[in-house]
Amino acid sequence: MKRLLGLALLFLAGCAVVPEKPTLVPVSYDALQGWGQDAQEEALDAFQKSCAVLKIKENWRAVCAAARAVPQDVAASRRFFEENFTPHRFEGAGQGLFTGYYEAQLKGSWTQKGAYQTSLWTRPDDMLIADLGAFKESLKGQKITGKAEGKAFVPYDAREAVAAGSLAARAKPLLWVDDPVDAFFLEIQGSGQVTMEDGSVVRIGYAAQNGHGYTPIGRLLAQRGAIEKPVTMQKIRVWLAAHPDQAQAVMNENPSVVFFKKAERDGAVGAQGVVLTPLRSLAVDPSFVSLGTPVWLETPAQRRLVVAQDTGGAIKGAVRGDLFWGAGDAAAESAGAMQDSGTYFLLLPKNGAEVP
Question: Which of 3, 140, 241, 243 could hold 133 in an S-S bridge, CB 3.0 to 4.6 Å?
């Protein structure tokens, strides 16, 4: 069985493409528009959270120790980054897309009843994640998700099957919510707060994903002329609400499904394992930007220092980011409307420490 599984994995991996990383070119701080007007002490606070993870890497201990000693004021924080990091840009990468995300808020119940008919699933016991690097060195760092079906390793259930009830006997609901569209957008955000019937609030976070690629339904609706560009979350929600008979079928066109768990910490936690900081945490493609890296974000509306602390199924490419806005209606409104073209600069340590 193991041999058959290994052969299947190698066959599936034959089409895997490792993205080529553009060359990083150092620039001066003068190239960073708005650098002198930013509140870098806010980004320093976010970076110090990342240091709780980075400090276990010996070559980051010095810069993290220096970060902990910086007074909480803008001048000292700006000087810390200037003295310890050099900005770099991706040569020839051009402009990229920057969107926003937030900590979703939903209404829920521990049991299925009344309006509470949409399940937020925990990670299924039969879902398997194969590390392809264990089978072939050139595939190190690549993984695929699936399940055993007889003697075959096959892709895990896509959204259409899950929505039709395929997990009923194979996974446990974490809880039930009253709106399938809210649940759908919760998966995109990755974490949220659920207000239960008794008024208590349960914070939930990402546990796993079914391995299918993310398909943005907003792009599909725009291509069909159903909504106008620029695509925003608000426009998608309006369309789904106005077409309840088509909503699930459209959502099913995104085969990616996220599974959840109760969060242990007070705040949304990103892929790096640290609590995210509103407007200072950025989701990136880790193939190009390592988690923990300070990043100067530069779009027409946002010129600020952030820290790469999260990832996302839709965040792919050398210049691509998703800015965390926090929780609440205002955060959801701002995040949903963010569709900016721009670029960023990676701040890499001067002390020779390798990128985290």
Answer: 140
Q: What is the pLDDT of residue 151?
A: 93
With 50 as the cut, is the pLDDT of residue 6 above it?
A: no
Could you say which DSSP state residue 116 is in?
A: B
d(CA 115, CA 7): 47
Residue 292 near residue 308 (C-beta atoms within 8 A): yes
**Residue 102 dihedral angles phi and psi, to the nearest 5°:** -150, 170
**CA-CA distance, 150 to 154, in Å (whole number)?**
10
In order, the DSSP letters of 23-65 are: PEEE--GGGSTTGGGS-HHHHHHHHHHHHHHHTTSGGGHHHHH
**pLDDT at position 254 over 50:** yes
Separation between Cα atoms, residue 304 and residue 33, nearest integer Å = 9
Cα dihedral sign for 297, 299, 302, 308? negative
Burial class (CB in 10 A: 0-12, 13-18, 19+), 249: exposed
Instruction: Locate the DSSP E strands across the chain.
Output: 24-26, 85-90, 96-109, 118-121, 128-131, 143-149, 152-155, 173-177, 191-196, 201-209, 258-262, 281-283, 294-298, 303-310, 320-327, 339-349
pLDDT computed for residue 61 by the predictor:
85
CA-CA-CA-CA dihedral for 168, 220, 214, 191, to nearest 10:
-70
DSSP 288: T
pLDDT of 3 higher than 60: no
Query: Rounded to whole angstroms, how far apart are CA atoms 100 and 102?
Result: 7
* Distance separating alpha carbons of residues 299 and 341, to the nearest angstrom: 6
Contact present, 291 and 274 (Cβ < 8 Å) = no
The CATH number fitting domain 24-99+270-349, selected from 2.40.40.10, 1.10.340.30, 1.10.1370.40, 3.90.190.20? 2.40.40.10
